[in-house]
Design goal:
The complex is a heterodimer of chains A (292) and B (419). With 292 residues, chain A is an all-alpha fold. In chain A, 75% of the residues lie in helices and 3% in strands. Chain A has a two-stranded antiparallel sheet. The N and C termini of chain A lie far apart (40 Å). The model of chain A has no long low-confidence stretch (mean pLDDT 90). Chain B folds into two domains: 217 residues, Response regulator (Rossmann fold); 146 residues, Rossmann fold, CATH 3.40.50. Chain B is built from twelve helices and 14 strands. Chain B has a five-stranded parallel β-sheet, with helices on both faces. In chain B, strands 9-10-13-14 form a four-stranded mixed β-sheet, with helices on one face. In chain B, strands 7-6-8 form a three-stranded parallel β-sheet, sandwiched between helices. Chain B starts with a helix and ends in a 15-residue tail after the last strand. The chains are: A mainly alpha (292), B alpha/beta (419). At the A-B interface, helix 1, helix 4, helix 9 and helix 10 of A face helix 2, strand 7, helix 7, helix 8 and helix 9 of B.
């Protein structure tokens, strides 16, 4: 492999990794907050991509301009899912973990089915946009602008999340709730409200990822599965519940995937990711930054 | 409503239902129906193929069940004449591109829906398991649109494929390369780019063999994971090999991602000759058509043929009214597959599996009674139609033009593809 090809592999890995991180962080946030694994996470991503597509289709604005609306819509979706589904699943008297798994899994199937029924399984993609199909060339290394943009959005989102968690009352309430749900109730923090906002925030983050992906990836009802699985691996690697673990793990997954594809036959490129996953599960089940 | 009324109401409703059921049974005896199982991906990543297939089959159903004045097999007269005008009924099942789901659905259709034959299944991997089930139960399987050559190599008695398979398609591609070379064009190297299920693997095996036999160097041989989130590393390999012809065997999702990624990485393939599939789907061209100018794909079908057989326009319009799109490589084969199956059942004069099988084996229909460019429809001992001549189409100015073989071509190829 030439130095140039290696640089290309690493650059592509980094850019995809940042996007993987952005997809995964919402999942990790929700898990950290309330120990619920959202199996509909990939479908949230799919919903966000369709919302972005629909807004671009209806308003003819550039996908970048509709991003705030996508994020807001997904915040609503997350909050509604908590209030309408997860809240009830958490009240289960027996086998609560299973009930939560099946509730979110059922939601995933519902969202997929609804998307296929109402939006048809046709592949959609956003045709003309400011960034779509444009590429930056640096000494023979090609960096697609939509992915550079995605990487920057991801970094900015993690920056914003850091400020939110460390500097605001809501962030502190979030942190406190994940530490001890019972204690926060005693000091007058409404647990339900924090959970609602937490789900909203988690969904809004994956909404951001979906809005970015919609610029350069095809959209169809099953698109969530392609990225969802990688999100679970990323979260497991970074540590369930660790927001910044998701960032590091996303980048690692991106690198590992790109390098595996370059070294082994590309058909086996997922091999690297899942070996990594297995390794983590055996050696450090709590993940790199997990506090389990 | 008190309890007595409720009971009374329930009883009368039940007697009604019984009467209706009885009437239904009487009716069914008067005009018998022939049930055909249709197994396609109706959900999952390739659901659109299944939905288009459904429209294609319903168009064919309309042709068979109603009287149409077309020179197409199965069109004249309503229903199956030899079975006293029995109508066809289709039972659709979803395999989600999963061979095991396909196998389970095939068993269900045969044992519970009592289908007389099964047609399917798009993904070769699913056709492989479904045809194993039909073989075991002695039910004919018409393989409408799966193209792996290995499907016919399993000594099956109930497997029939009227359309070409990838050996025939790939041979046409290399015949075309030879012809281009004879015209002084430069074709020394090819790159294979194929997905990792039976379709891509079989297709690449044939292409690898043909390339070696005919003296083309394989500059890159890239097997990739289907439905990948990114194909950057894969395209990087193609780019550094920069072959004279890029030969992808890809389903729709990967085809779109491949084309997008080539553009992102600044790689312009000199020529692209595709094993159809994703490259015959309109959505691919809707999404990335601007980057596919001059792309060539093999096909079993071309709308050009309507100039010689006007009824193709009629049936295409019937299909378009249902699906809002033109017949393509896949939907045309699905449509034709059901007509050929109905014709054989009618000729057998019964729905008995073994007799329909014999009727299928004895099929001999001139290509001009079909919508396809095929010379004839007949089946060899392996169930494959050896006369299903494929064509190559080039995407020029927003539509497909037949460029090979020369006797049906309506234009010369633009080579290299970017002019």
């Amino acid at each position: 492999m030439t130095a140039q090809a290696l640089a290309q592999v690493l650059a592509s890995g980094l850019l995809m990794g940042l996007i993987y991180a952005l997809i995964a962080v919402g999942l990790s946030l929700i898990f950290g907050l309330m120990d619920v694994v959202n199996f509909a996470h990939g479908e949230f991503l799919m919903t966000a991509m369709y919302v972005a597509f629909g807004l671009v289709f209806l308003t003819s604005l550039d996908p970048i301009l509709v991003m705030p609306i996508v994020v807001a819509v997904l915040f609503g979706v997350g909050a509604v899912v908590y209030l309408g589904v997860v809240r009830f699943a958490m009240r289960a008297k027996a086998n609560q973990g299973m009930v939560q798994i099946f509730a979110t899994f059922g939601l995933a199937t519902l969202l997929q089915g609804a998307a296929q029924y109402f939006l048809t399984p046709d592949y959609r993609s956003i045709g003309n946009s400011w960034l779509g199909g444009k590429t930056l060339e640096l000494g023979g290394v090609f960096l697609p602008l939509p992915q550079i943009f995605g990487g920057l959005v991801s970094i900015a989102a993690f920056g914003g999340l850091y400020l939110l968690m460390s500097r605001t009352d809501f962030g502190k309430a979030l942190e406190a709730t994940r530490e001890d749900q019972g204690a926060v109730a005693l000091v007058g923090i409404d647990r339900n409200r924090v959970f609602t906002l937490g789900w909203g925030l988690g969904a809004a983050l994956v909404g951001l990822a979906g809005a970015v992906l919609a610029i350069f990836y095809y959209i169809h009802p099953q698109v969530g599965a392609t990225f969802g699985l990688i999100a679970y691996v990323t979260v497991a690697l970074g540590g369930f519940g660790s927001v910044f673990g998701a960032l590091v793990a996303g980048i690692i997954v991106g690198f590992v995937e790109a390098l595996t594809a370059a070294i082994l036959p590309p058909a086996m490129k997922s091999l690297g990711i899942y070996m990594l996953y297995l390794g983590v599960v055996f050696v450090r089940p709590s993940g790199l930054f997990g506090k389990l | 409503m008190n309890r007595r009324e409720l009971l009374l109401g329930g009883a009368s409703a039940m007697s009604f239902a019984a009467a209706a059921g009885f009437a239904g049974a009487v009716q069914a005896q008067a005009a018998r129906e022939v049930v055909i199982g249709v197994i396609y991906p109706m959900s999952g990543a390739s659901a659109q193929v299944g939905i288009d297939a459904r429209h294609a089959f319903e168009t064919a159903l309309d042709i068979v069940n109603n009287d149409h004045a077309l020179d197409l097999i199965g069109a004249k007269g309503a229903g199956l004449s030899a079975l006293s005008g029995a109508k066809l009924r289709l039972v659709f099942a979803d395999h989600q591109a999963d061979p095991q789901k396909g196998r389970a659905e095939a068993e269900r259709l045969i044992t519970q829906e009592k289908v007389s034959a099964i047609i399917g299944c798009y993904q070769s991997s699913v056709s492989a398991t479904v045809s194993a089930v039909t073989e075991r139960y002695g039910v004919p399987f018409l393989c409408a649109d799966s193209s792996s050559p290995s499907l016919q190599r399993r000594g099956m008695k109930f497997f029939f494929r009227p359309a070409a398979q990838d050996e025939m398609f790939s041979a046409a591609m290399f015949d075309f390369f030879d012809a281009q070379k004879a015209k002084g064009k430069k074709i020394d190297t090819v790159a294979l780019f194929f997905e990792d299920t039976i379709f891509g693997v079989d297709s690449s095996n044939v292409q690898r063999k043909l390339a070696t036999e005919r003296g083309y160097k394989i500059a890159a041989d890239v097997k990739y994971r289907t439905n990948s989130p990114s194909l950057t590393a894969e395209v990087q390999q193609l780019k550094s090999a920069d072959p004279d012809v890029l030969m992808p065997s890809s389903y729709t999702t990967d085809a779109m991602l491949l084309v997008k990624t080539t553009a992102e990485l600044g790689y312009k393939p000199k020529n692209l000759v595709a094993q159809a599939s994703g490259f015959s789907e309109q959505v691919t061209y809707d999404a990335v058509g601007d980057k596919l100018r001059g792309a060539i794909t093999r096909a079993s079908f071309s709308l050009d043929l309507a100039a010689k057989r006007p009824f193709i326009t009629t049936v295409n319009d019937m299909f378009k009214a249902r699906s809002t799109r033109d017949f393509n490589d896949n939907s045309s084969r699905q449509f034709m597959g059901l007509l050929l199956l109905a014709e054989a059942i009618n000729r057998a004069g019964t729905t008995d599996g073994a007799k329909v099988r014999d009727a299928l084996a004895a099929t001999d229909i001139p290509g001009t009674s079909t919508i396809m460019p095929w010379a004839r429809v007949r089946y060899g001992a392996d169930g494959q139609n050896p006369d299903a001549s494929p064509v190559l189409l080039q995407y020029v100015e927003g539509k497909f033009v037949t460029i090979f073989p020369t006797d049906v071509a309506i234009a010369g190829a633009i080579w290299p593809m970017n002019g």
